[in-house]
Amino acid sequence: MASEYTTSEYIKHHLTNATMCSTDNGIAFNKACSDAGFWAWHVDTLAWSIGLGILFLVIFRSVASKATIGVPGKMQAFVELVVEFVDDNVKSTFHGKSTLIAPLALTIFVWVLLMNLMDLVPVDLIPWVSGLIGQAAFGMDPHDVYNKAVPTTDLNLTFALAAGVFILILFYSIKMKGIGGFAKELTMQPFGHPIFIPVNFILETVTLLARPLSLALRLFGNLYASELIFILIATIGYFQLPLHFMWAVFHILVLPLQAFIFMMLTIVYLSLACEDH
């Protein structure tokens, strides 16, 4: 597939989201959305992220409903291993009391991991299949059919995940400290004198906002760079297989690590929010 494009066109095609937007003439797709303004939907990101989320729920629900007390099957043993791993990290890191944190951490870890693992799918496979479907079903030029299959390479998704965590940070901060206590935390730290309130507020607000920003950009940056390297390797041609294999083996460690970091930082931030100073 790389031979059908110039290198720049090939890279741009693989890094472009399938976009749907509303215009004065009705619903538009892809190139017609370039001037649509703010409200445009990345339908591939939505489809893959929702689909992988449903897959996670179906697998874990199925295992839970069929769980046995005796010798577990391979899938049950794997799910129990993941649950115990997440539970141990929550118990050692989160010092508050909440029944939400452990399920939230499990959801984040598995969901982000599944989305990250899409990076191991050959970069030409899904765009090629999507192009065939678009051509056969809708009469579209395959070059105009986009399908970016790694949701975490979309900054919109990573910011949406981080925004959810940020809302929980604010919720637990106000719940544990009250509005007055939360306001005092923003204005009387790190310098405990009233004269430093403006300085404290600026410093603490920057610290507070940096948490979701760092969550979103760290996950996006690592996965986007990884996908870009896979695409660059694919432009080599017939000599790409050894490099693909080495880069994929390396990412068997990196992709779970990024999901783990996102989960652990979420737990740490929520633990800090629950501390009653």
The chain-level mean pLDDT equals: 87
Tell me the total number of β-strands: 3
Query: Which H/E pattern describes the elements?
Result: HEEEHHHHHHH
Molecular shape? globular
Distance between the termini: 59 Å
Binned, the helix content reads 55-70%
Provide the number of structural domains.
Answer: 1
Radius of gyration: 22 Å
Given the structure, what is the number of helices?
8
Sheet having the most strands: 3 strands, antiparallel
Derived from helix and strand composition plus strand pairing, the structural class reads mainly alpha
Strand order, sheet with most strands: 2-1-3
Low-confidence stretches: none
Strand content: under 5%
General description of the model:
With about 280 residues, this protein is mostly helical. The protein is built from 8 helices and 3 strands. The chain has helices at about 5-15, 45-65, 75-95, 100-115, 125-140, 155-185, 195-235, 240-275, and strands spanning about 20-25, 25-30, 40. The protein has a 3-stranded antiparallel β-sheet. A hairpin with a 2-residue loop joins strand 1 (about 20-25) and strand 2 (about 25-30). It is globular and about 65 Å long. The model has no long low-confidence stretch (mean pLDDT about 85).
Any descriptors?
277 residues; mainly alpha; 3-stranded antiparallel beta sheet; 8 helices; 68% helix; globular
Secondary-structure map:
Layout: H1 7-14, E1 19-23, E2 26-29, E3 40-42, H2 43-65, H3 74-93, H4 101-117, H5 125-138, H6 155-187, H7 197-234, H8 240-274
Antiparallel strand pairs: 1-2, 1-3
Helix pairs in contact: 2-4, 3-4, 4-8, 6-7, 6-8, 7-8
